User: Fold Citrate synthase from Flagellimonas lutaonensis.
Amino acid sequence: SSSMITLDPGYKNTGSCESAITFLDGEKGILRYRGYPIEELAEKADFLEVAYLLIFGELPNKEQLEKFDQDIKAESHVDEEMKKILDGFPKSAHPMGVLSSLTSALVAFNPTSVDVSSEEAMYRSIVRILAKFPVLVAWTMRKKMGLPLDYGDDSLGYVENIHKMMFKRPNKEYTKNKVVIDALDKLLILHADHEQNCSTSTVRIVGSSHAGLFASLSAGISALWGPLHGGANQAVLEMLQAIQEDGGDTKKYMAKAKDKNDPFRLMGFGHRVYKNFDPRARIIKKAADEVLGDLGIEDPILEIAKGLEKEALEDDYFVKRKLYPNVDFYSGIIYRAMGIPVDMFTVMFALGRLPGWIAQWREMRLRKEPIGRPRQVYIGENLRPFVPLSKR
Ligand code: SDX
Assistant:
C-alpha cells in the first residue's frame, strides 16, 4: 500500500546507488575523483588522464595513457552522413539540442556500440564516444558560425585537438595558445564528474533499462541542458550581461532573487549538496583572474560577478540558505574570454562531464544494477465508473 512508500521529491535524501567514483562532502567543500583531491588533479593532471582515472579507477601509467590516446585517435572518424542530420537544424537551434540528437544518431552509424557484453566491447564503445563527441561539438559550433567542418589533428593532445577543431580558421595558421589550452584542460577536469547529479542520474536510469551507452549519454545531455543544472553557466552570463546593461545595478537583481513572487534566481548560486563553498568555483574564480590577466582582457562582467558574490556572502537571505557560488558562476567568464559563444557554454560542460557519465554508466552496468523504477504516493481520484460522451 502507498503507506509503505517514503516520498522524497528530488531525491534530496535518497541514495540511488553505491559508487566508488566520486566523493564529495557538502559541508567541508571536499571533492575527490577516485580518492584524489580535485585541487591536485586540476593543478597536476591533464583531462585525458582524469578521464582514464574516472572510468577505470586508477591513474594510467605512461603505456596505458599512450594506448588510451591511440585507441581514441583510431576512432576519431565521424560518418560524413552525420552532416546531413546536422544540416537539418536551423542555425538558431540550441547546440545542446543538436548535440543530444547527434549523440543519439551516432548509434545508427555505430550499431555495435550497443554491445557491452564484454570488457573489450565496452572499451570500444567508450573510446568511440570519447573520440567522436569532441568532433560533434566542434561541428555543432562551426555549423552555427558558417565555418567548414573538419576533423582533428592526430598529432595533437586531446584538449588541444578539441580547441583546434573548434577554432581553426580557413586559410589561417592555427597557433596554440598555451594559456588557453591549459585553462580549457583545467575547466574540463573540474566538470568531469560530480556523483549522482541530475544528468548523471539520468544517464544511469536510462542505462539501467540496458539502453545503449550513446542513447544514455544523449539523455544526460538533455538533462544537463536545463537552466537549474548545466544550463546555469549560460544563464549566469546572460544575467551578468543584463546587470551590466542595467548600469551594473546588482542590488536590483539581489532583490529580485529574494522576491518569492519573482521566478528570477541568482544563477550560478546555490547547490543541492554544497552548503559551503563549491571547491570548483574557488579554483575557477582564480583561473578567471589568471586567464584574463594572461590574455590582457579587462572584462567588466568579471567585476560585476565578484560584486554579486561579495553582496550575496553578506546578505542573510543567501547566508541563511547557504547559497554560495557554484561551478557555473565563473566558468562562463573564461569561456567568453576564449571566444566561445554563450550558447555553447553548456556544451563545454557536457564535454567535461562526458568521462564522468561514462564512468558512472560503466559502474552501473558492471554492478548489474536493477532497472530504475521509483514508486509514488497516489493522490488522484478513487474508483469511478465510465461516463458515456452523451452524458458529459
Ligand atoms: C550544477 O547536483 C550537482 O552536483 C550539479 C552540478 C554538477 O556538477 O553536476 O554541481 C552542476 O547544476 C550546479 C547548479 C547550477 N544551477 C544554478 O546555479 C541555478 C540556481 N540554483 C538553484 O536553482 C538551486 O540552488 C539548485 C537547483 C542548484 C539547488 O536546488 P535545491 O537544492 O532544490 O534548492 P531549492 O531550490 O529548494 O532552494 C532552497 C532555498 C529556496 O528558498 P526557500 O523556498 O527555502 O525560501 O534557497 C532558495 C530557494 O528559493 N534558492 C535560491 C537560489 N537557489 C536556491 N534563491 C535565489 N537564488 C538562487 N540561486
